[in-house]
Amino acid sequence: MPTSRLGGSGLRLAYDRRVVADDLTVTVPDRSFTVIIGPNACGKSTLLRALSRLLKPAEGAVLLDGTDIHRRPARAVARTLGLLPQSPIAPDGIGVAELVARGRYPHQGLLRQWSRSDERIVAESMAATGVADLADRLVDELSGGQRQRVWLAMALAQQTPLLLLDEPTTYLDIAHQIEVLDLCARLHEEQGRTLVAVLHDLNHAARYATHLIAMRDGRVVAAGEPRQIVTAALVEEVFGLPCRVIEDPETGTPLVVPAARTRAGTVTR
Amino acid sequence: MIVIRTPGRLSLRLHPRAVAVGLACALLALAVGVLAVGHGDYPMTPADVLRTLTGGGSPAEEFIVTQLRLPRLVTGLAVGAALGLAGAVFQSLVRNPLGSPDILGFTQGAATGALVVVVLGGSSAALAGAAALGGIATGLLIHLIAWRRGVHGFRLVLVGIGMTAILTGVNGYLLTRAPLMDAARAVLWLTGSLDGRGWSDAAPLLAALVVAVPVLLACGPALRMTELGDDAATGLGVSLPRLRMILLAAAVLLVSLAAAAAGPVSFVALTAPHLARRLTRAPGANLLPAAIVGALLTVTADQVALRAFPGQLPVGVVTGVIGGGYLVWLLATERRAGRL
């Protein structure tokens, strides 16, 4: 049984009175690249919001290192758990290096505004995400893919062992999606961070995740290593999509191929 | 960006342009202040003023400066600084360049408090106290209505606009109930005036500034994080509900006490933060520059009013004309730049 610093049990997640998930239990294995997938409105983003303490569970608790995440000081949590939200806002006229530097906030104080280690870590984070050359550019001038790497650099500069990413590939074209996911995989492997991401694309999830959580209607249908849990039956159950699962010729991970209309039974030969 | 580091673990980061702008505006405000103190029925040269301020004046000069003219200047500086600071906080808090206490209803609340005293009859001190209470009560009410799991910027604006409309109606009604003489006095108060202000008018506001300025400056870094959006700010370890509560309380206190000291001086809270941001060219709330620019704007407007129309024109008219003109210009240029 792998250890886990982050997880929740008996979670009831709700917006006002609308209950999205009830009695939900999840664990994020340490040093995993955990990906949460499921159809629209299955509660995957809501779960990520709960894990990142943006949403307080109506019942149950999200535990970080064994204590309720909402009972710990906000800054202390931010030194352990980083978050890249789905659509963060870049302030008008902010430069790349300045934005990345904001990731150091939880480590700073009124009289410790910019230490040498802050400076070093920001430079390292920009190098790791390949945006060092953009340091003096304005964020507004960047392409979508570059901007997402800048945000990732900011999240890295926070230097948290755990990092949560809410749909980090949305609004990007396929090449930039793969670029961002490759970058995440590298950060996971080289820096030993635990990553948790919500992804839309099942094939991306199956290729990059070391631990997959498949959700539907606010429940976890299956959780585990993609090679072990991604089957045609699971995809049918979670997404209601008839398909075949073959081996990805590039990586050997499961590749989901949706069934053609004829096979789905709407048109018969 | 300049970084100052001490051998210990202390390090400070300064924006050189912001520091230069802040210092320049502060010096300018002091210069206007020296000229202001020298102006009046008994004219004094800047040298006389400085000599008197440093304790070298005749008893008559001493009296004129410290008892008659300095209180008006200090009240003007304090009111301007409080409004500039509160305006910068509100604009940041509601993430809207138009988020100012004039538009959110706090100013009207202060006016309601003052008008109640006018109708019922009461001293100047009671009027000032009621204005402060009116502003604070409006702040509490807006907070209670807009509060649903934390103050949300947009909701705060909408509730504030609604409150402004209601209070404007109430204020109109109160004015019609007041005796004619008192109504005239009330209208003068409603324009915002620094006429005949003494040390007792400035004291409560100065005390509030002494408390609120350090608190707000300490909130500065967290406030900067909120520009990234609520989710990102929370992820970086900002406790948003607590931060918003502190900001709202401090800003409402400053606006209410500023209104108590000088009446609702219009548009300083809206204009000063914009001007400060344009001058410093630094992103973000620019809290301290906004306070300094606010102080400079207010004392300059008061001097313009005094010298152009001796004894006739309240400072609020000048700030209203300047602020209104500036707002129109801002809307026009921002629109052309496609930002608004």
Describe this structure in words.
Chain A: This is Fe(3+)-dicitrate ABC transporter ATP-binding protein. Chain A: GO terms for molecular function: ATP binding; ATP hydrolysis activity. Chain A: Pfam families: ABC_tran (PF00005). Chain A: Keywords: ATP-binding, Cell membrane, Ion transport, Iron, Iron transport, Membrane, Nucleotide-binding, Transport. The complex is a heterodimer of chains A (269) and B (340). By secondary structure, chain A is α/β, with parallel strands linked by helices. Chain A has a single domain, classed as 3-Layer(aba) Sandwich (Rossmann fold), CATH 3.40.50. Chain A has helices at 44-51, 74-78, 96-101, 116-128, 144-157, 174-191, 202-208, 226-229, 232-239, 261-264; strands at residues 6-15, 18-28, 33-37, 59-64, 67-68, 81-84, 162-166, 194-198, 211-216, 219-224, 243-247, 254-258. In chain A, a hairpin with a 2-residue loop joins β9 (211-216) and β10 (219-224). The longest helix of chain A is centred in the last third of the chain and has 18 residues, at 174-191. Chain A is globular, with a radius of gyration of 19 Å. Chain B is mostly helical. Chain B has a single domain, classed as Orthogonal Bundle (ABC transporter involved in vitamin B12 uptake, BtuC), CATH 1.10.3470. Chain B has 14 helices and 2 strands. Chain B has helices at residues 16-38, 46-53, 59-93, 101-104, 106-120, 124-146, 153-177, 180-191, 199-226, 230-235, 240-262, 268-280, 287-308, 315-336, and strands at 2-5, 11-14. In chain B, strands 1-2 form a two-stranded antiparallel ribbon. In chain B, a hairpin with a 5-residue loop joins β1 (2-5) and β2 (11-14). In chain B, α3 (59-93) crosses α12. Chain B starts with a strand and ends with a helix. The mean pLDDT of chain B is 87. Classes of the chains: A alpha/beta (269), B mainly alpha (340). The A-B interface holds A 52-54, 74-79, 81-94, 98, 102-103, 105-106, 108, 110-116, 119, 155, 158, 164, 166 and B 3, 5, 9-13, 218, 221-222, 224-225, 227-229, 231-232, 234-239, 281, 283-284, 339.
